[in-house]
Amino acid sequence: MSAHPTGRSAADEALLALASSGQVPQEYLGGSGVAPNTEASEHVLQTWRTADCVCFDVGCTITRADGLDLLAEFMGVKDEVFALTQQAKDGTMNLSETLEEVLRIINCTPDDVRRFVQQHPPEKRLTKGIVNLIKTLQKRGVAVYMISGGFREDIMPIAKYLGVPRENVFANRMNWQWDDETGQPTRLSGFDESQPTAFNMGKIRAISKIREDHPYNTVVMIGDGATDMEAVQSSQGADLFIGYGGVVERPAVAEAAEWFVYDHDELTRALKCSKVAMIGIGPFACAAIHLVVQNIEADDQFDPCLKVWVQDPLDEFEGRSLIDIVNTEHHHPKYLPGVHLGDKVIASSDLEWVASDADVLIFCPPHQHMQSITRRLMGKVKREAVAISLVKGMRVGRDGPQLVSQMIRKNLGIDCSVLMGGNVASEIAKRELSEAVVGANSRETGQLFRKLFQTPYFNVDIVQDVAGAEMCGTLKNIVALAVGIVDGLGCGCNAKAVIMRQGLTEMRKLSKTLYPNVRNETFFESCGLGDMITTCLGGRHRATAEAWTRAWKSGAPKTWSQLEVELLSGQKLQGVGTSNEVQEVLRARGWEASYPLFTTVNRIIKNYIPPTSIFTFRDGVILPLPDEDDEELIPTRRTPGQHSRVGSIVSGSAIPAS
Ligand SMILES: NC(=O)C1=CN([C@@H]2O[C@H](COP(=O)(O)OP(=O)(O)OC[C@H]3O[C@@H](n4cnc5c(N)ncnc54)[C@H](O)[C@@H]3O)[C@@H](O)[C@H]2O)C=CC1
Ligand SMILES: O=C(CO)COP(=O)(O)O
């Protein structure tokens, strides 16, 4: 089959058009001898895996091409009915005429139907693997429908056995003559012509009705006939048609289908194997792995193996390779010793090997390394993969600020969500109650990530505000530094409340100014208020800023890098970098005075003004500072009001450079 954006050749497209007219020449429908597409493309697989509604033609759920044939056999009129139904399936006879004619030939009574169902119970008629496939779909929350040109009287027992709700069955309905005296149905008198399935293009009609009544995002039709294949022909129809040849193989259908299967187990297997990869193995990556493995081991949708990228192949713990320890003992001895990362976690320093076959990519390295990581992965990840960033931080390039999720989307060309919240890694690892939000562009992707991270003690809500959630996670690190400074100066809760409230105000203002679609409510979610509280009470930014301020107070100041090494055992302090990055934006746009807390914190951490200036941030008439590199400086201890290194404000007055 030649390449085509939809996966169908031009000839297939033509065939579909002809089939829909109901007037396809028989020899054309016989197919041209081209082998069916039994290997699904990445696009098709992705559609199948993200479907929230799957419609089965009844013909692929039971071992006879159509229940009507079996009923006809039961009534002793098999050959006449078979000839007629084939014509309808192949599109050479008008469907409603066929049905009328078939019923006239079958001419059954309600008793005949009852006896027929007793003699042919559903469990004896089902195709191999259909029970498991429907169960797997329903377990994933996918709505399952059955659509048939046959009759409810025959189909309902099968639907019931398969667990498909009555209202999800679209089929024709027999009309009966009624006995006035007994009130009971007696003989057939045609069929109900108001059902969508009573006409040509009936499958499309049924699917449009389903779509009208339910907001499904992705609908898949599975069937074996030309009328099933029609379902993808209208914008109101299905998004994907999967051809099934386990009972009857119609060559034209087999050739035109974007994916043609002979066994339902193949569809079940394809649902199960979303591969997940983690990029990074810091403390939070380890805590996230601990959550994710609980879900991928329990949910058929995911491959239970999780590949993890370790940045440094030579990283050691007590003389042993870290990669070996993770792969054999399944824990991280430095960051979360003893916390089980899962037996099927495979650590490697080969970034491409870890990421290239993943369907779901989780990013969790320190933010300053994300640009080089995503550049290394350019063109090397699956086009249909989806990503989620757990990274709190941004990059400021020549074009202005870039969030990590934007960087991933731009460099890798894939959708990217974010997971943000008040989430200290060590507490999650201890299974203490926590919550987070997934910021996603669609509800469907949000639900995928909720499935991946949610556990009974880690609640995940979905917000369709990626930028808002990510800005919260990024900017709160600056506020946490401010709170640490207040702690270092020995102040109590009132002062910290002032800083946190002002911090939240500036976070919201900057987020909405840079990204106007950011929602106010996002700031009251776990990513906003929640993370602000967590990080200002328990995070490393607060603790390091407190130590830095105490050192300044003691007259033996230390640099941030020094403290990062001394206090954080290999972890990174990203808030200092974030403060510089944010300040670059504020400065370039002339906004410094509108963000007095952010600006004051940046002046303090760069030693332009003393830590005590945190109390007077409101007086912020901010002097422009000369351009210079952000090299770290060992400050000399100064008291408020004394000279600062370059120039700054304390209580509104500019202090000349020393
Ligand atoms: N630690 C926590 O409790 C939480 C962290 N986060 C976010 O998760 C992200 C990762 O933070 P952590 O897990 O704490 O790790 P971290 O920020 O402490 O960094 C340690 C990790 O950085 C890696 N690393 C060092 N140099 C690197 C390089 N050149 N390239 C790539 N990786 C390198 C190391 O291998 C190590 O695994 C950050 O954006 C952080 O804000 C989010 C929520 C909670
Ligand atoms: O983001 C965090 C908690 O949500 C972690 O905060 P720290 O980086 O300050 O430890």
From TrEMBL:
Record organism: Dunaliella salina (Green alga)
Family named by the database record: Belongs to the NAD-dependent glycerol-3-phosphate dehydrogenase family.
Any one biological process term the GO annotation gives: glycerol-3-phosphate catabolic process
Keyword entries, A-Z: NAD, Oxidoreductase
Superkingdom to which the source organism belongs: Eukaryota
Stretches assigned to the Glycerol-3-phosphate dehydrogenase NAD-dependent C-terminal domain: 465-614
GO molecular function, one term: NAD binding
Name by which UniProt lists this protein: Glycerol-3-phosphate dehydrogenase [NAD(+)]
